[in-house]
Amino acid sequence: MQPVTPPAGAAPAARNMRIFHLQPGGATELAALPDQAPAQGFVWISCTRATLQERLTEVQRTLQLLSGQQLVDLHVSDLLNAQLPSRYDYTSQYDLLVFRRLASGQARAAASTGVPAAPTAAPAAPVKRTGPPVLRNIDTSPVGFAMFDQVLLSVHPDDCTVRDAYAARLLAAMPSDLREGRLNPTSGTRLPASPADLMLRVVNLIVDGFLDLRRELSRQLDHWQTELLRPRTRFANWSALLDARLALHELDEVCEDQRAAVQDWTDALETWAPPEDAASLRELDLLKVRSRDVLEHIERVVHHVRRLEQSTETVVQMHFSVQSNRTNDIMRTLTALTAVFLPLNLIAGIFGMNFEFIPLVHKQDGFWWAMGSMTTIAVGLTVFFWRKRYMARTAQD
């Protein structure tokens, strides 16, 4: 297996298939698919869905040479499916895990059509959403993992950000002579010990992206809730609110599928036969610990998303309660004013009758008596209603 030296100025993310050989001494990137199983360590083959579809025969031949088993047709369809939810499956020779990650750019366009986008195609515009800007990023795409004894095959969206981020971390941790193929066993870098360990580390990077989204969601929705609870706000963008609730519900479903898939993987680990040597037993225990840690991170995201859903629903109800309370204040004030002027209208109506003899009509000071009585009644009723707090506003910040 020959290592590859990236050309100067070349972007690793531009390569649609990358092959790595990981062993206790370090990690090297290979120039081509290997034709024999490594004496130590394991091989990581990572590619995009479009590349897997184009080079499926070559990849299947390599898997046959390295592990003696090829992917079954149904699992190939799962790895090529851009709409598949997170799930776990297995055969007697390998395990399959599909885990959805946050998509961006070209991956969102491919996921919306269900067909992998060509590497040279221009990125399609993502589906537009209203509401807080962070809600427009809740689009996901699947990442597939096929774990053999000495091979990990990972299938990513066309942007491959997760793959390239972890690959850069692996290569950056190694001394320069490792990138040239001269392994240094004195390196203290902790490398993945098995394909399953590497898979869990990549999945953990994916979950970290959801945790970052969780924090941004909190900031955005807190600001939005403050706007909704302002007493004098005239909120009219209800379509944005509906999109926000749908986006949160979609994120909840994605995280639930993720949790179910990792839980199935964790349950499958419990069925593995305990190895005889202490080193392998410790490696299995570390896999179980890392799996439970990933599961706990997913549960934190699920819990937070559900709390945001409940908080959004609560703030909408509080918004309508504030508006209803404000309307009640207005109606109560108008009712009190109507009650104040009702006796005045009665007096004016009595003195406006077409009778010849009405008290005070033909007296010189009759007008002032009528005005004085009307003023006294109005002031008295106003003071009475004010003391009863019928004309006081409800305190609002």
Write the layout of secondary structure elements.
Layout: E1 17-23, E2 26-30, E3 42-48, H1 49-54, H2 56-67, H3 73-80, E4 87-90, E5 95-102, H4 106-113, E6 140-147, E7 151-156, H5 161-173, H6 176-179, H7 195-228, H8 238-270, H9 278-351, H10 366-387
Parallel strand pairs: 3-7
Antiparallel strand pairs: 1-2, 1-3, 4-5, 5-6, 6-7
Helix pairs in contact: 7-9, 8-9, 9-10
Beta-strand content bin: 5-15%
Question: What gross morphology would you assign?
Answer: rod-shaped
The CA-CA distance between the termini, in Å, is 70 Å
Biggest sheet statistics = 7 strands, mixed
In sequence order, what are the helices and strands, one letter per element?
A: EEEHHHEEHEEHHHHHH
Radius of gyration: 35 Å
Low-confidence segments: 4-14, 105-127, 176-189
Give average pLDDT, whole number.
77
Annotation, overall tally of beta strands: 7
Class based on secondary structure composition and strand pairing: alpha+beta
Kindly report the spatial arrangement of strands forming the biggest sheet.
Answer: 2-1-3-7-6-5-4
Estimate percent helicity.
40-55%
Individual helix count = 10
Quaternary state of this entry equals single chain
